[in-house]
Automatic annotation (TrEMBL):
PANTHER family: ATP-DEPENDENT ZINC PROTEASE DOMAIN-CONTAINING PROTEIN-RELATED (PTHR38037:SF2), ZN_PROTEASE DOMAIN-CONTAINING PROTEIN (PTHR38037). The lineage of its organism: Bacteria, Pseudomonadati, Pseudomonadota, Gammaproteobacteria, Lysobacterales. This is RimK/LysX family protein. Coiled coil: none annotated. It comes from the Bacteria.
Length: 155
């Protein structure tokens, strides 16, 4: 078995397909799925397929990003407080510790949480392990100016 990459309980991640160069994430092996905070989302169809548009601010001074992605799934998610909500899932590339891999992320309102992203165990499987006594083991990723196409440009 290959050696897994050790992560701290919080890390800097990138979501390049969504135009996010860096984002603080809480690494939570107790959570099944990963969640990304969005300030707002809307649904539409493109070429007969369901898509989601969303708006988010990835962090301090980063401004607002507006993006779109095909809907991968819609399913019920139970949060740590036991509340069940229906959430949209997208598939996107996660960049972390020199590894790029496609993961599923649900779009949710994480307002009031310390981290705009929660990285769950399905995103960690087979590649990463967590040392809860450490944090930011892989440094701060460089900022990216990449942005998603606007809704106007994809139609």
């Amino acid at each position: 078995m290959a050696t897994k990459i050790v992560l701290g309980w919080r890390e800097w991640v990138g979501l390049p397909d969504l135009g996010i160069g860096r984002l603080r994430a809480k690494v939570d092996s107790g959570a099944r799925s990963s969640a990304l905070h969005v300030d707002g989302q809307w649904h539409f169809h493109e070429r007969g397929e369901p898509w989601v548009g969303f708006r988010l601010s990835p962090g301090h001074g980063a401004g607002m990003i507006e993006g779109v992605a095909p809907v991968f799934d819609v399913r019920e998610v139970t949060d740590s407080g036991g509340h069940c909500t229906r959430r949209v899932f997208v598939r996107t590339t996660l960049s972390l510790a020199g590894v790029d891999r496609v993961i599923e992320i649900n779009l949710s309102d994480r307002r009031g949480m310390l981290f705009p992203m929660l990285l769950g165990r399905t995103a960690l499987a087979r590649v990463f392990t967590v040392d809860p006594a450490r944090s930011f083991l892989h440094g701060r990723l460089p900022s990216s100016t990449a942005r998603l196409p606007s809704l106007k440009s994809i139609r």
